[in-house]
Write a structure and sequence with these properties.
Blueprint: H1 2-40, H2 45-48, H3 64-72, H4 74-104, H5 111-120, H6 126-139, H7 147-150, H8 159-169, H9 174-182, H10 187-198, H11 200-216, H12 219-224, H13 233-236, H14 248-279
Helix pairs in contact: 1-14, 3-14, 4-8, 4-11, 8-11, 9-10, 11-14
Length: about 290
């Protein structure tokens, strides 16, 4: 009996060690580009282009960071991105929560069918609607600033956020809404004073995902913004790339500066990110 137990123990330990070894190997492979980016940002341009490659910079050129920041007015790009993210977060939270409430807490004919139609629009490639949307916004005289990127968020354009909130709303007990109706509350009161206060985890997830989307969004600003003064971080950092020569340590320093906020955000809010992924697979018919 003890021999069998020892064999099982050794088998479990061996399987656990194998899994950890695979995870460590994958982490090293995925983390190496980030490490190389950080090291290259501290090299001279000659070291960055040297063959064979120079692994450790000597000396560490810390001045690459203030130099690139002053060269492309990086703080301005950060402020533009924060403005873009804050405005769209407000729009997404308002519109997506309202639509999600209608799809989850109110019974009406055709509700589930229309919800499936809405979710199916995620299958439409962005490039298929790019030209018609641009023409429409051009006729509305909205091209040139962030309006084509901000206004749709107030009109329920974030299908992903609506889906996520709808899934969370459906996990809340229906008896809570029924009790509020007995007390004389209307649907808007139930939504604002009962459902939303109970949905802070889901709303926090929506805010985080929307912020990450805005921080990384490159194609949208590239299409609609024509003034470099209003460039976000994703688009403004491309100004470092030269036509004939490029200072690659500056490029890597800029990439580090653009990546660091997202890494820090994920480090402190990883539970919220994981919870957001889990929410998508939950929810019962309400």
């Amino acid at each position: 009996m003890s021999v069998a137990i020892n064999r099982r123990t050794r088998h479990k330990l061996g399987a656990s060690a194998g899994k950890h070894a695979v995870l460590i190997l994958v982490s090293v492979v995925l983390g190496f580009p980030l490490l190389w980016m950080a090291l290259t940002s501290l090299k001279t341009n000659h070291q960055a282009l040297a063959v064979p490659p120079v692994w450790i910079p000597h000396p560490f050129v810390w001045s690459n960071y203030p130099d690139f920041i002053s060269a492309v007015t990086f703080p301005r790009f950060v402020l533009n991105t924060l403005m873009y993210a804050a405005t769209t977060i407000v729009g997404v939270c308002i519109s997506s929560s309202l639509v999600a409430y209608g799809f989850s807490r109110i019974r009406w004919r055709g509700r589930d069918f229309l919800f499936k139609v809405m979710v199916s629009t995620l299958l439409i490639p962005f490039f298929a609607t790019l030209i018609p949307l641009f023409v429409m916004y051009k006729r509305f005289d909205m091209v040139g600033w962030y309006l084509p990127l901000i206004v749709p968020t107030f009109l329920g354009s974030s299908i992903f956020s609506t889906f996520l909130l709808r899934q969370f709303f459906m996990t809340l007990p229906q008896s809570v809404s029924d009790a509020a109706r007995v007390d004389g509350a209307n649907e808007f009161t139930i939504f604002t004073r009962v459902i939303l206060p109970m949905s802070k985890p889901a709303l926090a997830t929506v805010i985080l995902f929307q912020f990450v989307y805005c921080w990384n969004d490159y194609l949208g600003p590239l299409i609609y913004i024509d003034n470099q003064v209003w460039y976000p971080v994703s688009l403004g950092l491309t100004l470092i790339l030269g036509t004939y020569t490029t200072n690659w340590p500056w490029v890597m320093a800029a990439a580090c500066a653009a990546t660091l906020p997202i890494v820090v955000l994920f480090f402190f809010a990883q539970r919220t990110f994981i919870a957001g992924i889990a929410i998508q697979g939950t929810g019962d018919k309400g």
